[in-house]
Design a protein that fits this description.
The structure holds two protein chains of two kinds. In chain A, about 40% of the residues lie in helices and about 15% in strands. Chain A is built from 13 helices and eight strands. A two-stranded antiparallel ribbon of chain B has the order 1-2. Bound molecules: adenosine-5'-triphosphate (ATP) and magnesium ion (MG). Magnesium ion binds next to helix 1 of chain A.
Chain lengths: ~270, ~80
């Protein structure tokens, strides 16, 4: 049975698109047929992060408005044969996404794919609501910072009360915390909320911690999901998160500052 | 980094403040979730009435809605400044 995963956050710019791209690529790497949908109508970005911006012909809104067939709009990734992208429209018409339209597209995708990853826009308006409405599972992307934590708690409230599963009194949407842009050095200095702090406040299971990493910028410059950047900590952390999502046990990594001098090492610091 | 830094116990930076503030605001917002939409307006109006008699801060009023199977209870608590009594 196909599974719908929403990548959401409330607050903007916390790493939803980066995480959607890498998470979807990670599922595809593990052999699962995966589609990733950009719900950010008017501000399409996922295509850039995945490096397929020049191959966009049709988009989500075209499919919803019956101007194109789903398979005409889906872009197959050049690197991963199991990964497909459904780009967002650049239209400025905010009502272009309809609830029925989104449902129809998702149902059609479900017949062909194992996982459908929905990259939510920021905010709690229509686009964000439609992205999460059908979700079976939610990856809540949070930065260790006050406004991001607070906004993500609001999103958790919406998942629990306004999602399809909530409306139908079905089993609740399964929630996962993905803490990104984590800087162990700042945590050690006491200037950044720690993983445990955020967990204590939000109280949902931890899927992974993605360190603040230059590799993210470099790979988005290149149009490659960072999970494919061999050897980078961010890639390793995303791979771990995908493995955990698939039910494997992986120890959390990159939570400690990188050890520097010999003196510190001798002290075990 | 000085030698002492290596042995310090808990860091007491701004993160601690962030955590405390978040704990309070998140708890407050969770309590307000699924409460009637008129609560904020009700709170404002009650505040106005009280202020005709006593100067209170805007956080002096706490409104809660408690639900169980049988009934809903609107709980209102107002703390007055001590010197006004
Ligand atoms: N782990 C990380 N380390 C460093 N930079 C990061 C990391 N994750 C994301 N970024 C950077 O943060 C910025 C925002 O990321 P992204 O576009 O994925 O966020 P978003 O939540 O999708 O934003 P929006 O709400 O606008 O859709 C980008 O410049 C991205 O490169
Ligand atoms: Mg985005």
């Amino acid at each position: 049975m196909a599974e719908i995963i929403v990548v959401t956050s409330g607050k903007g710019g916390v790493g939803k698109t980066t995480s959607s791209a890498s998470f979807a690529a990670g599922l595809a790497l593990r052999g699962h047929k995966t589609a990733v949908i950009d719900f950010d109508v008017g501000l399409r970005n996922l295509d850039l992060v995945l490096g397929c911006e020049r191959r966009v012909v049709y988009d989500l809104v075209n499919v919803i408005q019956d101007e194109a067939k789903l398979h005409q709009a889906l872009i197959r990734d050049k690197r991963l044969e199991n990964l497909y992208i459904l780009p967002a429209s650049q239209t400025r018409d905010k009502d272009a996404l309809t609830a029925e339209g989104v449902e129809r597209v998702l149902n059609e995708l479900k017949e062909e794919f194992d996982y459908i990853v929905c990259d939510s826009p920021a905010g709690i308006e229509r686009g964000a609501f439609l992205a999460l409405y059908h979700a079976d599972q939610a990856v809540v992307v949070v930065n260790p910072e006050v406004s991001s934590v607070r906004d993500s708690d609001r999103i958790l409230g919406i998942l629990a009360s306004k999602s399809k599963r909530a409306e139908e009194n079905a089993e609740p949407v399964k929630e996962h915390l993905l803490l990104t842009r984590y800087s162990p050095e700042k945590v050690e200095k006491g200037d950044m909320l720690s993983v445990d702090d955020v967990l204590e406040i939000l109280g949902i299971p931890l899927l992974g911690v993605i360190p603040e990493s230059e590799a993210v910028l470099q790979s988005s410059n290149a149009g490659v999901p960072v999970i494919l950047q061999e050897g980078s900590h961010a890639a390793e952390a995303y791979k771990d998160a995908v493995a955990r999502y698939l039910g494997e046990e992986r120890e959390m990594r990159f939570l400690q500052p990188e050890k520097k001098g010999l003196f510190k090492r001798l002290l075990g610091g | 980094m000085g030698l002492l830094d290596l042995f310090r116990k808990k860091p007491a930076g701004s993160a601690q403040t962030a955590k405390e503030r978040l704990r309070i605001i998140v708890a407050q917002e969770r309590a307000q979730r699924n409460t009637p939409d008129y609560l904020p307006v009700l709170k404002r109006e009650i505040l106005e009435v009280i202020r005709r008699y006593v100067q209170v801060d805007s956080d002096a009023i706490q409104i809660n809605v408690e639900k169980d199977d049988q009934q809903e209870v609107l709980e209102l608590s107002i703390s007055l400044p001590t010197d006004e009594r």
